Amino acid sequence: MSPVAHDTPPPETAPPRGLFTALARLTGARARLLLVLTVVLLAGAVVLGSGVADRLRSGGSGGVVDPASESSYAADVLEREFPGARPNLVLLARAGSGVDHADAARQGRELAARLADEKGVTGVTSYWETGAQALRSKDGREALVVARLTGDEREAERTLEERITGHFDGRQGDLTVRVGGSVAVQHEQQTLISEDLLRAEAIALPITLIILMIVFGSAVAALLPLGIGIIAILGTNAVLRVLTSFTDVSVFATNLTTALGLGLAIDYALLIVRRYREELGHGRDMPGALAVTLNTAGRTVLFSAATVAVSLAAMLVFPLYFLRSLAYAGISVVVLAAVAALVVLPALLAVLGRRIDALDVRGLVRRRSREPRQPAGAGAGWARLARWVMRRAPLVATGTLAVLLLLGAPFLNVDFGTADYRQLPASADSRVVQQHINDGFQGNPTGAVEVVTKEATPAELGSYAEQLSRLPGVLRVDAPTGRYTEGRAAGPAQPGRTSGAVSYLTVVPGVEAVSDEGKELVRDVRAVDTAFPAYTSGTTAAMIDSQAAIGRGLPWALGIIVLATLVLVFLLTGSVLVPVQAVLLNALSLTAMLGAVVWVFQDGNLSGLLGFTPTGSIETALPVLMFCLAFGLSMDYGVFLLSRIKEERERVLDHKAAVVEGIRSTGGVITAAALVLSVVMVAIGTSRITNTKMLGLGVALAILMDAMVIRTLLVPAVLSLTGRATWWAPGPLRRLHERFGISESGSERPAPAADAPGATDAPDPAAAREREEPAAAVGAAAGKSSD
Question: What parts of the sequence cross the membrane (predicted)?
Fold first, then answer.
């Protein structure tokens, strides 16, 4: 048998000068000091970030509305000029004997009076006070009390929790009362998201640890990536807590923080730990292994973090705080995950040394089963798959492309809308209230179009209201004299309500608000010619304005992502073709996700199995978030693979051999990383909130498609077709890369014979045996097990 190549240490070479070598020396020489500082900073992050959940916004309508739009302006005017005009609290009172019964009527008036006496409550109106039929159900057994909880979103929710819930719901004499309205929907949504996030973490952490123990075979090595993930999550919570002092941050940011904190930190830690153990297996000492690891895997981590951060940063071009706050969270967690992986993890590796292989779990299993350890080729299966694909490149590329396009076809029928109470589970009180109002009361209480006018005379308002009432799809035009009740008159209809020079009218639609007919109605209202300024607001108007804002920002966001990806991958590879391939293949990896989102969540397929109510549309901002997130994560794995292929090409100077070796050496780590991240996303996808479920399950599908299909089938097939031209660049760009580009360096091992030209189809048997032998001593359980 040929001698085991890895038993002989590689020739000593001076590590390359630069940032990563200096970082390796620093973390090796000051490891314990860095770890103590990390513990201190982590304790501070825990204290600072402990109250972040209470300061996040629940993602109500304001989160997905352009603050500079017409609908936002009209809503601000209503809030300022008519504080009680936009009720956000509804009490649904049911009386078995009917709401007009004397006892029920008396108790209903008392209920409304008690509510009006509460601090932070204004604009209280009830059926029993006004007699408005719009506040009485068709069967006469239910009636409404509506009001406005004052203050911003957090203050309104605090009032709801402290003064309303538990005091005004349940049995109230002969009445059975439920609490609803937009503030109740938002509060219940935030509560469920917080509870679901804890459950997701409880599901994801143990499964992640099991996967890592299987991958590494060592309990100690498996705990390291998990620890880096926890550092990233706790640190990001502290960053978000600080950001809430300056800007609005959506509660959905906590879901993104958990997913990326665990997923990316574990990805980066997997790559670094795997490479470190590999270098130990090649006979290097700890300082040398650490220097090589940071100059190769560490450099890849830095590039990966840059690509993911840029993809998430693209959401900053949108004015919607929902997307902007998720960009803040995403960028923070990416930066912290990369810093922890490049500073804290090497310090831990330096302290542990070869004890990283302590608690060999697979060794315990072998001893209990009395089965000998079976020598296996490290990544031999991935190498065989790569060779098979490259021999059939045209067929594999065509077939894979056709399947991906077929899976993405449903997205062509996407219908964008806005989230509503149906995001909540069917048992949620606020959803039950809204459903009762929709089914049992006149008109469409959630779809009213609010029209704010300025400097209009009573006669002009009367003529304008008459014009609006004749529009297709209008049920009636209300203009309350006192308090406004979710699109219904609290008293006799009037031509307008005036506060100084400002007036408002309410257009009650007879069509579904979030529908093509509802959107057409808003456009018709806006198209009515007036001699005075008029501004429309309401759910549908806000949705139209949000879609317009996203439409304006989308080309800029895509441009930023594509340009940054092209530049970063060029700096990494020095090729013109590889960056273009990376962008196109990453975009293809998202087709299955986008198609599944429409097929499942819009069309309702599998809704019973997954436990949600389909609405026939997709929240406008959510595909943007999913695209930016999934594209960044796909580039994460793409950088892993391209970095190793480039490193091997520079070493063996053969294109196909480099592709095979790149896939062989990264196939295991990319698969393990994708499994871990998909587990986290699926755990988040168990949420009872539909949009969170869509985010988690959709991104999990994109991750698995990228790792299992794009990286294993499409990438090697395309690289085989492009051949040596893959690495071509014109002279000026080649010289630019030589001056400013990044080179994977630090590993000076001699090239195995199996990587020689032509080895992709007929590897040398002796060299193959060397590769498939277990590494000597430490390397046997360490360097290759992660593949």
Answer: 33-53, 207-240, 252-273, 301-322, 328-352, 393-412, 556-578, 583-601, 621-642, 663-685, 697-719
Q: Give the separation between CA 468 and CA 473, rounded to whole angstroms.
A: 10
Quickly tell me which residue has 């399950």 as its tokens.
697
330, 630 in Cβ contact below 8 A? Answer: no
Give percent helix, percent strand, percent coil of the chain, each to the nearest 5. Answer: 65, 10, 25
Residue 406: its H or E element: helix 393-408
Rg for the chain, CA atoms, rounded: 31
Lookup: tokens for 385: 């798959």
Nearest in space to 348 (alpha carbons), one of 429, 248, 276: 276
- pLDDT computed for residue 92 by the predictor: 92
Q: Is the pTM above the cut of 0.85?
A: no
Alpha-carbon dihedral 170, 176, 180, 181, rounded to 10 degrees? -140
Residue whose pair of structure tokens reads 């360490």 in the numeric block: 782
Do 538 and 448 contact (CB within 8 A), yes or no? yes
Strand partners, 93: 143, 177
pLDDT score at 688: 92
| The pair of three-digit structure tokens given for residue 60, joined into one six-digit string | 């109500």
How far is Cα 645 from Cα 655, in angstroms, rounded to an integer?
9
The one-letter amino acid code at 2 reads: S
Q: What is the DSSP letter of 528?
A: S
Give the pLDDT confidence score for residue 694 in this predicted structure.
93
Reading the block at residue 210, the tokens are 């099991």
Q: Which of 599, 367, 480 is nearest to 132 (CA)?
A: 480
Strand 416-417 relative to strand 618-619, pairing: parallel
User: Cα–Cα distance between 526 and 141 in angstroms, integer?
Assistant: 38
Tokens of 683: 């755990």
So what's the pLDDT on residue 131? 84
Cα-flanking dihedrals φ and ψ of residue 511, to 5°?
-120, 165
Distance from first CA to last CA of the chain, Å, rounded? 24
Tens digits of per-residue pLDDT, 585-603? 888 889 999 999 999 999 9
Q: Are 226 and 345 in contact (CB under 8 A)?
A: no
227: Cβ contacts below 8 Å, ≥ 6 apart: 348
Query: Which structure tokens are listed for 589?
Result: 């990896």
Read off the DSSP letter of residue 538.
S
Q: Which pLDDT score, from 0 to 100, does residue 2 have?
A: 36
**And the tokens for 228?**
């880096």
Total residues belonging to the chain? 787
Distance (Å) of CA 706 to CA 118, 403, 631, 758:
55, 13, 10, 28
CA dist 206 and 679 (Å) reads 10
Please enumerate in sequence order all residues whose Cβ is within 8 A of that of 178, keeping only pairs 6 or more positions apart, or say none. 91, 92, 94, 169, 429, 432, 433, 436
Bridge-based pairing state of the strands 89-95 and 175-180: antiparallel
Q: Is 158 helix (H, G, I), strand (E, B) or coil?
A: helix
Dihedral sign for Cα atoms in the order 437, 438, 441, 443:
positive
| Dihedral (CA of 100, 103, 106, 112) sign | negative
* Residue 220 burial (C-beta neighbours within 10 Å; 0-12, 13-18, 19+): middle
Q: What pLDDT score was predicted for residue 603?
A: 92
SS3 223: helix
**Which two structure tokens, joined as six digits, stand for 495?**
């031509």
- Which ranges of the chain have pLDDT less than 50? 1-12, 365-377, 480-495, 744-787
The answer to whether 452 and 438 are in contact (CB under 8 A) is: no
Q: Is 710 helix (H, G, I), strand (E, B) or coil?
A: helix
Q: Rounded distance, CA 127 to CA 508, Å? A: 18
CB 715 within 8 A of CB 261: no
